[in-house]
From TrEMBL:
<dbReference type="GO" id="GO:0000281">
    <property type="term" value="P:mitotic cytokinesis"/>
</dbReference>
<dbReference type="GO" id="GO:0007266">
    <property type="term" value="P:Rho protein signal transduction"/>
</dbReference>
<dbReference type="GO" id="GO:0030496">
    <property type="term" value="C:midbody"/>
</dbReference>
<dbReference type="GO" id="GO:0032154">
    <property type="term" value="C:cleavage furrow"/>
</dbReference>
<dbReference type="InterPro" id="IPR000198">
    <property type="entry name" value="RhoGAP_dom"/>
</dbReference>
<dbReference type="GO" id="GO:0051233">
    <property type="term" value="C:spindle midzone"/>
</dbReference>
<dbReference type="Pfam" id="PF00620">
    <property type="entry name" value="RhoGAP"/>
</dbReference>
<dbReference type="GO" id="GO:0046872">
    <property type="term" value="F:metal ion binding"/>
</dbReference>
<protein>
    <submittedName>
        <fullName>RGAP1 protein</fullName>
    </submittedName>
</protein>
<feature type="domain" description="Rho-GAP">
    <location>
        <begin position="61"/>
        <end position="255"/>
    </location>
</feature>
<dbReference type="GO" id="GO:0005096">
    <property type="term" value="F:GTPase activator activity"/>
</dbReference>
<feature type="domain" description="Phorbol-ester/DAG-type">
    <location>
        <begin position="1"/>
        <end position="48"/>
    </location>
</feature>
<keyword id="KW-0479">Metal-binding</keyword>
<dbReference type="GO" id="GO:0005634">
    <property type="term" value="C:nucleus"/>
</dbReference>
<dbReference type="GO" id="GO:0051256">
    <property type="term" value="P:mitotic spindle midzone assembly"/>
</dbReference>
<dbReference type="InterPro" id="IPR002219">
    <property type="entry name" value="PKC_DAG/PE"/>
</dbReference>
<dbReference type="InterPro" id="IPR008936">
    <property type="entry name" value="Rho_GTPase_activation_prot"/>
</dbReference>
């Protein structure tokens, strides 16, 4: 059964991957819960095909939905994208700034999410910017930003830490806030910070900390309110970049402390 419904919260179509916008009509299977554009119905004739036996990730969710059962709690998708970028992308100019082909980014993100933990190899993706796009799109698609957490969201950093003029006091406050994040958010943030530091140190990439913080600020750090106005979003952008720049200023050993305890587990499947 595929009843029609009106979308209230924008969600991705399970067939084409693009978002079904607010107020648009969509169809949803009563049994398997797949949601798709009405125009995509013919491309998905059997909505209730048997589900794969292996674990399949949700199309969207909180970070904890994607992490393994043993630490460090970093999703295999994130590990695989980062590994691929570091294997063959550190000589590419504009990593994470130059966009990959949007259709390929959507296709590969959908393929990886459907695969669950048993991920297909990314070596067949010719353009490394597509791999970068998949990672950014995955982080953007989470129900809450990576730097969010009920214990102490990075959203609180502007008042709590980033405006402290003394570098030592600011770093201490930052370390405290990061340590209070939920374990999955904390470990994944640490893994990403170490990766972005390696990107910033590559002269070929031409992506210093300032550039990377501008790219990842809105992705990693939440807004100052639950339902920000367009003006608030515009005002939040420099603040978000500032937070990420300060995080990247922390010593690598701080971040390694979260992910190197079980580093051998960080092997892409």
């Amino acid at each position: 059964p595929v009843p029609s419904l009106q979308v209230i919260r924008p969600e991705p179509c399970c067939v084409c991957g693009s978002r079904i916008r607010f107020g648009k009509t969509a169809i949803k299977c009563c049994q398997c819960q797949l949601l798709l554009h009405t125009k995509c119905r013919e491309q998905c004739p059997s909505l209730c095909a048997p589900r794969p036996h292996h674990h399949t990730w949700p199309r969207e969710g909180v970070l904890a939905d994607f992490v393994p059962s043993t630490p460090p709690l970093v999703p295999a998708l994130v590990v695989q994208c980062v590994t691929e970028v570091e294997t063959r992308g550190l000589t590419e100019t504009g990593l994470y700034r130059v966009p990959g082909a949007e259709q390929l980014v959507r296709e590969w993100k959908r393929k990886l999410l459907r695969a669950g933990g048993a991920l297909p190899a990314l070596s067949s993706v010719t353009d490394i910017h597509v791999v970068c796009g998949v990672l950014k799109d995955f982080l953007r698609g989470l129900e809450e930003p990576l730097g969010e957490g009920t214990a102490s969201p990075l959203t609180l950093l502007p008042g709590a830490a980033t405006d402290i003029p003394d570098d030592t006091a600011r770093d201490t406050a930052l370390r405290h806030v990061v340590s209070k994040l939920p374990p999955a958010n904390r470990d994944t943030l640490a893994f990403l910070m170490l990766h972005l530091l390696r990107v910033s140190h590559s002269p070929d990439c031409k992506m210093d900390v300032l550039n990377l913080s501008r790219v990842f600020g809105p992705t990693l750090v939440g807004h100052s309110s639950a339902n920000p106005t367009p003006l608030a979003i515009m005002e939040d952008t420099p603040r978000q970049s500032k937070v990420v720049a300060h995080l990247l200023s922390l010593p690598p050993d701080f971040w390694r402390g979260f992910v190197e305890t079980e580093q051998e587990n960080l092997v892409p499947m």
